[in-house]
Amino acid sequence: MSTTIATCAFPGTYDVDKSVELHLSYIEEAAAAGASLVVFPECSLQGYPADFRASDAKASLEPFLKTVETIEDGPNVALIAEKAMERGVYVIYGLNEATERPGVIYNTMVLTGPDGLIGVFRKVHVGITEQVFWRRGNDWPVYETPFGKIGMLICYDKSWPETCRELTLRGADLLVMSTAWSLRNPADGDDDIWIEQYKLYDQVRAVENSRWFISSNFVGELGGLHFFGLSQIVDPLGHVVATTGTSEAGLAIADVDIPGGILSAYGLSQGPNIIRDRRPETYKALSGSLPITIDG
User: Fold this and answer.
1) Stated pTM of the model
2) Which CATH number is 144's domain given?
3) What is the 3-state secondary structure of 16-42?
4) Does 296 map to a domain?
5) So what's the pLDDT on residue 287?
6) What pLDDT sits at residue 52?
7) Is 294 within a domain?
8) Residue 122 CB contacts under 8 Å (≥ 6 apart), including other chains
9) Residue 49 lies in a domain
10) Which of 103, 158, 203, 278 is deepest in the core (most CB within 10 A)?
11) Which of 8, 10, 53 is nearest to 222 (CA)?
């Protein structure tokens, strides 16, 4: 059974009206191509916040705080939900999520579909400078869809193998990552070390769990950072089946057999044995029963 998936290399903007127009346009394009799911980057709705400067905190925080939205009554959240329902597609996008507690904001992925809101994921691993903007999430929910179970993660989260393993153990078929992953040194172009690491993470997370991995990143300059796109769909054997490349905005689209891909990985590699043959009782430093002996 084939499912069409689209993932977007998104030209980010802090103009939320323009951003909404872009989201709706890409959803329309994906739906016209027969996509059941379309994925956008981290903070795609309002833009990944510019580098925080302690010397001028107000300049960083004021524009960020002006555009946060709640999921329950955010006007732009509603517009994207309406488009998903109108076109009968599932949409994952990034939101700077306000809550009923003033100043408590999360870096959130929203999953909405033909029948409205399905669920959210709040970024768990939030870097030191990012903690100026966001609280940390504390759970790894998995959501059912007609084409498979979806587990979500955001950017820095994919640096830990435990994140995708937790989602896999909870039943996820699709590991979907929204990110704002920039170049370390723009002068290095496609040889940039952070591009190489990004590719490795996507493929290894797919292989080590025998699951589909979908990533969506910004492309172009935003807030002083240079993003390289590379939004892609990776099969459970680690093959990149669709990619936007490192310079073009737009959609990577592929028709995939989600359960078939997982079964192929089971047949051609260690597959379910990786789950069966785990020895969690021996991972004593990981479980906390032995002290960690390296500094963080």
Assistant:
1) 0.95
2) 3.60.110.10
3) HHHHHHHHHHHHHHHHHCCCCEEECCC
4) no
5) 85
6) 64
7) no
8) 97, 106, 107, 108, 135, 136, 137, 138, 139
9) yes
10) 158
11) 10
| Structure letter (DSSP) for residue 247 | T
Domain range enclosing 212: 3-287
In the structure encoding, which two tokens stand for residue 15, read together? 């103009």
Does residue 295 sit within a domain? no
Mean pLDDT, consecutive 10-residue segments, the chain of 296 residues?
A: 96 97 98 98 95 68 92 97 98 97 94 98 94 95 98 97 97 98 95 97 96 98 95 97 97 98 84 80 90 79
Crossing angle for the helix pair 161-169 and 193-209, nearest 10 degrees? Answer: 30
Query: What Å distances lie between residue 232 and 57, 115, 219, 243, CA to CA?
Result: 35, 26, 13, 4
Judge contact between 37 and 5, C-beta under 8 A: yes
Number of domains into which the chain is organized: 1
For residue 9, give the nearest of 222, 174, 159, 185 by alpha carbon: 222
In the prediction, which pLDDT does 55 show? 60
The angle subtended at Cα 29 by Cα 28 and Cα 34, nearest 5°, is 95
Q: What is the pLDDT of residue 174?
A: 98
Whole-angstrom distance, CA of residue 52 vs CA of residue 267: 48
Q: How confident is the model at residue 267, as a pLDDT?
A: 85
Tell me, what's the pLDDT at 296? 60
Cα 214 from chain centre: 8
d(CA 263, CA 242): 20
Q: Tokens standing for 103?
A: 């100043």
How do 174-178 and 219-222 pair as beta strands? unpaired
CA separation (Å) from 145 to 11, 82, 96, 257? 28, 18, 24, 15
